[in-house]
Amino acid sequence: LSALKVSLDEGHDKNWTEVQSQTVDLSSLRAAAAFHVQVNGTGAQRYRVRLPQLPGELTYANNARTVNVQVQQRALHVLYFTQELGVDYKYLRTELGADPGVAFTAMYRVLQDQFTVQGDRTGFQDLAQGFPTGDDILKRYDCVILGSFAASQFTDAQAQALVRYVENGGALILLGGESSFGRGGYADSKLAPLMPWTIRDDEPDLVTGSFPVTVSASGTAVEFTSGLREDLGASGGASLDSLNQPGGLRPGAIALLDGTISDRTEPVVAWQRYGKGQVLGIATNTMWKWAAAGHETRALYGRFWRQSVRGLTKKLEGGQLLGIHWN
Q1: Cα–Cα distance measured from residue 49 to residue 200, given in angstroms and rounded to the nearest whole number
Q2: What's the angle, vertex CA 77, arms to CA 82 and CA 289, rounded to 5?
Q3: Helix, strand or coil for residue 208?
């Protein structure tokens, strides 16, 4: 088990051809192997990951797994909007921008009424003056991510456009920070109903320290949290250095990740449906440190973001019409 060959086979008609292999150590009963394959063109591809058959195994049925891969153009368009860039933007853009299935567009203020657009610049002329107010522009994006900034920097027209976007099936992710939720004055804004928490004007300050994170019991019912508990275990546990305290969850909202503050737990990541769309709230501005800390927590950070944008937009791995989720 300390030196097992893992083979990647490529399927053509009924024949298999080995294209890559690695040696892994399974003496601890767990190992990871990553294969990178260059494919020319789009369409269906068939692969098989295979382990050798060892004497004494009870069955050889689980020594191979066949994987069908549909190669296509980028299908998931994400718009990141903020007023001022923070360090979290760097890691978020690196993670989603490197995903071959995601077209990532970011816009942020450079002058009073002028914004810079980075990443995928499809239709960027419509973003140069700020967050869109037209439904035809917003519907180009499958997911919108809002940074931490005051509600006063959103016009009524922009807020109404975002509410309509979610009501009609769009996905929204709200990032935490000093100017998020009640701290940012959103309790009386048109965006308040979108938030998974019942926010209020007198929201306490952002707390700092070291707060262990766990997958909440209710979070396991949401399919895009799959694998997060295992990644937390593999990393030896993870914590956050800051937490917002936006208030209790709205009726129908579900906690996905909990943070421990002293002797109590608070939902640090919460999810809710709104109209035909979905909203994810992230009550911290230090999750990016998972990506900066090392390989194990970087994998946790990557899985969280890739699965979140796919789960919220319902564009999961496996296809938009039929997906298979392994237990």
Answers
A1: 52
A2: 50
A3: strand
Q: What b/e sequence results for 131-148 when a residue is b if at least 16 CB atoms lie within 10 Å of its CB, and e otherwise?
A: bbbeeebbeebbbbbbbb
Kindly report the length of the chain. Answer: 327
- Contact residues for 268 (Cβ-Cβ < 8 A; gap 6+): 211, 213, 240, 243, 257, 258, 259, 282, 283, 284
Task: Report how far apart, in Å, the C-alpha atoms of 267 and of each of 19, 208, 210, 301 are.
Answer: 45, 16, 15, 17
Q: How far apart, in whole angstroms, are the C-alpha atoms of residue 257 and residue 308?
A: 12
pLDDT 10s digits, 263-308: 889 999 999 999 999 999 999 999 999 999 877 788 889 989 988 9
- What's this model's pTM, rounded to 2 decimal places? 0.77
Alpha helices by DSSP H, 168-315:
228-234, 288-293, 295-313
Query: Which of 313, 139, 132, 103 minimizes the C-alpha distance to 224?
Result: 313
Q: Rounded to whole angstroms, how far apart are CA atoms 306 and 235?
A: 18
Let me know the angle formed at the C-alpha of 94 by 72 and 168, rounded to the nearest 5 degrees: 60
Residue 213, phi then psi, degrees to nearest 5: -115, 135
Residue 235: closest CA among 249, 216, 215: 215
DSSP reduced 3-state for 45: strand
DSSP state of 135: H
DSSP 93: H
